[in-house]
Design a protein that fits this description.
six-stranded mixed sheet, alpha/beta, 2-enoyl-CoA Hydratase, Chain A, domain 1, Lyase 2-enoyl-coa Hydratase, Chain  A, domain 2, binds acetoacetyl-coenzyme A
Length: about 260
């Protein structure tokens, strides 16, 4: 692929957006390649945790502004749906996605990070939703995911002001889970991915599913959690996990 690199190491997948001359802006071709990469990771039974990062000084500086300039209303709607579809494949994947944010994560880049389960940021990372400065609004999920993750106050502040914030501020408001030294970003992300890949895959997938649906389900969320809990308790992974605990060894999970 031209704009997206894919790498696999043991049980870990790495997706790298690679269009550094345009700060990894997600033009349609880049988004198409990202979708192919995500589909491939989701379908590969060997891969248990996936890292998304960017080449150069940006994670992703947003959707491609040049392309947006050419669109009419209907085309804008389709563009939003396309990005939403790709990002939902990340959010709804049974596997865990880590955004390793190496620099600018603006507009669609911030939305891509928010679609991931965990955000690890370089101390140099900059987050923001600057769409209002272009006279548009976010279209790849920020109004929904940022509101769910950070609450209405911060979602409104960031989306309505377009203010850019650094990694430390993003950590303080709960957007980022870990801020690390820039040079250690990928080592830290890989280390976290290895920890996640060592856990019961079914347990991770179903925990993620229940958390994702927490806002949709209201009180039924507890019933839903209980059902999914039952599925993990009835799994081969549980038998292995409990056996390994008493045998004082690492479990060998199969994801079923
Ligand atoms: N789309 C297209 N091209 C972009 C881009 C984008 N989002 N962001 C940067 N570029 C291009 C620049 O035009 C420039 O290209 P040329 O070398 O051909 O001139 C190149 O990348 C390098 O960028 P800068 O020279 O601007 O780099 P900088 O270091 O001076 O500034 C920046 C960095 C502050 C991130 C600045 O590039 C910037 O503000 N980018 C736009 C960020 C933005 O508004 N993102 C939101 C896009 S809309 C969106 O994402 C909607 C949605 O929800 C789906």
């Amino acid at each position: 692929m031209r704009f997206v690199e894919v790498e696999k190491r043991d049980n870990i997948g790495i997706i790298r957006i690679n269009r550094p001359d345009k700060l990894n802006a997600l033009a349609p071709e880049v988004l198409e390649e990202l979708e192919i990469a995500v589909d491939d990771m989701n379908d590969d039974p060997q891969v248990r945790a996936i890292i998304i990062t960017g080449t150069g000084k940006a994670f992703v500086a947003g959707a491609d502004i040049k392309y947006i300039g050419t669109l009419d209303e209907e085309e804008g709607y389709r563009m939003a749906q396309f990005g939403q579809r790709v990002f939902s494949k990340i959010e709804n994947s049974p596997k865990v996605y880590i955004a390793a944010v190496n620099g600018y994560a603006l507009g669609g880049g911030s939305e891509l990070a928010l679609a991931c389960d965990i955000i690890v940021a370089s101390e140099n990372a900059i987050f923001g939703q600057p769409e209002v400065d272009l006279g548009i609004m976010p279209g790849w999920g920020a109004t929904q995911r940022m509101t769910r993750k950070l609450g209405q106050g911060w979602a409104k502040y960031l989306i309505l002001t377009g203010e850019r914030i650094g990694a430390q501020k993003a950590y303080e408001i709960g957007m980022v889970q870990k801020v690390v030294n820039h040079d250690n970003l990928m080592d830290e992300a890989i280390n976290l991915a290895q920890i996640l890949a060592s856990k019961g895959p079914l347990a991770l997938a179903l925990s993620k599913e229940a958390i994702n649906r927490a806002f949709q389900l209201g009180d039924f969320g507890f019933e839903y959690e209980a059902r999914l809990f039952g599925r993990t308790v009835g799994s081969e992974d549980k038998n292995e996990g409990v056996k390994a605990f008493f045998e004082k060894r690492k479990p060998n999970f199969k994801g079923r």
